[in-house]
């Protein structure tokens, strides 16, 4: 069969198929009543297009009847295009565009006259060439104007209207783009390309198909999204086409220079292509790298990362009495990302073994008590990779994970992927996702997102574990602090008992000493009982009743305890009645005096000085011991369990300050290395207590 006859037969079949498609879609639109304004115009355009296809199949696309009907067809599609502007009311605001529409219609109305003149005087080759050139150029201009209207239609539509206009705009774009290219090529070559003309029947069929999709009730939700495989293959074909086009252009350009450069260039391109195909294309690693990078940078991502992050944050941040525990919420947040039907979360127990801590929609999760072997946990911590269990079941072993995956994960067909939760290079949890309803393989985007979300979940879990550890440590710290205070008070009482025992060896026969010893023993017993009663006070201090206290008498009483031992002397003893807790003030004073005694040389006295300034009473404890550095006074003196003395508890000064503060007073300190230390207890006088209570700033200024 000659080539021309073959193309004619193909054109007949395609035109007939286009006519059938247009008629069927027109009937479909007719049966589906709709208030949309472009529906009658679209039906009319489809019917006219079907008539044109039948005419082109019967007499050829270049016949006079076919060309006249083609003008009517184009006019109908321009009207459809204009009516589409009415979907969101913009037909009332398109005064600048109406002149363009009118010009397009006028041109199409003039073209039948050119066709009739060509038919009447076509015997003259010159006139026929002019008529052909005018027809091709005018229809090219009409196609350009129509494409401008299509662009304005879609670009200026609201987001909601775009969803409705997507498929009709695509149909019109296909139609007018083919018209533009077909008549532009005809004008340049001054002839109708037989091959392309035979394929004109495909365009009405494509337009009708797109309009049929637009007639669907769910057309606004339908999107043409090719699969990753199709996208990659399309990209490959595009690259091959670009390569061949580049080779052709370079070889043609070099051939203009003369000689055999063009032939040499073609051979060089062929050699490079064959070399690349032999060495690189069989490599699965190279193909995988090309695939991942192509999908990552050239195609739309599977996930809407903003939506995923908002949903993840909402799930993790869910609060309230009815909210699931954090491990359960973490499992759900991870499962939502991949649409998994369930998830379990494994966290380390006290012995370090990973056990089931939370689950979501996985009733009776088969995770045993020791759900994750130490070797598998170490592998996940070291590699930090997401493991697809289907690959493990298929025998794939990329990094040595096949021998380490626990048996219960292999045996459970619901288990789909294992995600390590790593925080600062430390494995804090392991999540197992169930298989989604639609089975698929994980790709680079899944791996990247799951790793990122796993890292964020790990930080949340680590923060919760740290918070629980701090709460537990605070409880133990409170208990230890109470015991430390008790031990410190007992230590002071033991020191007094030891001093009393040493003095008894020398003054046992002195009645006055025995009398004082009896009083001291009674006081010590009372202090021990009071100490037991005050154990709760250290953990939760409560304000004690303030009573008038003779500061001078208390200073004399404390100094008397050290009679016969380390010298404690009163340098001044002004009458001074202050408000405070007698037992607490004596305890604080004993702490400070005992510290001064321990810091002083055996024969170096400790001085007590009691003074009054009319508003506050002041008792100073002065020693000439080793003293303290300014840094220690600032950072360590009043910090519990920090001491400058060997074997000291480091809570004497802290407890004394807290006791004095609890009475509304303050404890001042001044120390110099090698010179000694001066502590000063300042308390409000009884007469001025009410005034100071109402004006607390007075105490601070003083």
Q: What does this protein structure show overall?
A:
This protein has 25 helices and twelve strands. By secondary structure, the protein is α+β, with helices and mostly antiparallel strands. It has four domains: 222 residues, Rhopdopsin 7-helix transmembrane proteins, CATH 1.20.1070; 68 residues; 166 residues, 2-Layer Sandwich (Beta-Lactamase); 159 residues, 2-Layer Sandwich (Heat Shock Protein 90). α6 packs antiparallel against α8, α12 runs antiparallel to α13 and α21 packs antiparallel against α23. The longest helix has 64 residues. This is histidine kinase. GO terms for molecular function: protein histidine kinase activity. Keywords: Kinase, Membrane, Phosphoprotein, Transferase, Transmembrane, Transmembrane helix, Two-component regulatory system.
